[in-house]
């Protein structure tokens, strides 16, 4: 198996423009470090729908949902194709809505295998068009992957077109839910709304908060999480850079949050998961250099993390 870099410069699922530039910012960071990482691996550019940001959109509870659904389908097809061709895809994406495409692509490639998802993020991303306070779809990928509408917590009345696109999103790749709630684990989630908290509690989704990880020890928590995934044959890691503390690292991301992980904790967390030898895909998302008040700090930090974990991946595939 060979590593392949997939570049998905899409930011139409976010509320703030600029995460489409995150990949280029990481490449600039690599050049600045005289690191040839982006010349070492084959790569693929996934076409985007970023121009749709200028379209008049009536889906206020799920902004640009039709184009986001198309983009997730493109990502799903790319992930499926590369996994079937025995590549290990490292997906670099703009906003986090892409993760629905990634999860759907993994399940399309391995429909009979049970998939475990490590979601390293400040946010739960488990809203639906029926509950979202913003309408930004980067807050909805897990609800779609789990096949959840969350109508018992409904706040919004999406129009018929929105409902149609939402149904399409829940069935990208293969029909129906892609993962089970017991096969989803959060690390670092700390900025949620009431509807998300209710769903997390109802579905009994495990969330390793920062304070627990530091009190009990990162190694202990990772081993415990992997034990929960003992029946999962494959694992996907979704790493949103806002899982890191904006005050310690940078606010160069769409929705920065304080009191998160530091860079070393992320390094050890990713390496601990990869050491399981079950990981088939890694995704890095939400770097926004336009919001970075420390130069290119977020992209530089994300690249250092990416470079280090890639070395661990190489030793396990």
UniProtKB/TrEMBL annotation:
One of its GO terms (cellular component) is cytosol. Keywords: Arginine metabolism, Hydrolase, Manganese, Metal-binding. Pathway: Nitrogen metabolism; urea cycle; L-ornithine and urea from L-arginine: step 1/1. GO terms for biological process: arginine metabolic process. Its EC number is 3.5.3.1. GO terms for molecular function: arginase activity; manganese ion binding. Gene3D superfamilies: Ureohydrolase domain. PROSITE patterns: ARGINASE_2 (PS51409). InterPro entries: Arginase, Ureohydrolase, Ureohydrolase_dom_sf. Its cofactor is Mn(2+). Pfam families: Arginase. Belongs to the arginase family. This is Arginase. It comes from Lacihabitans soyangensis.
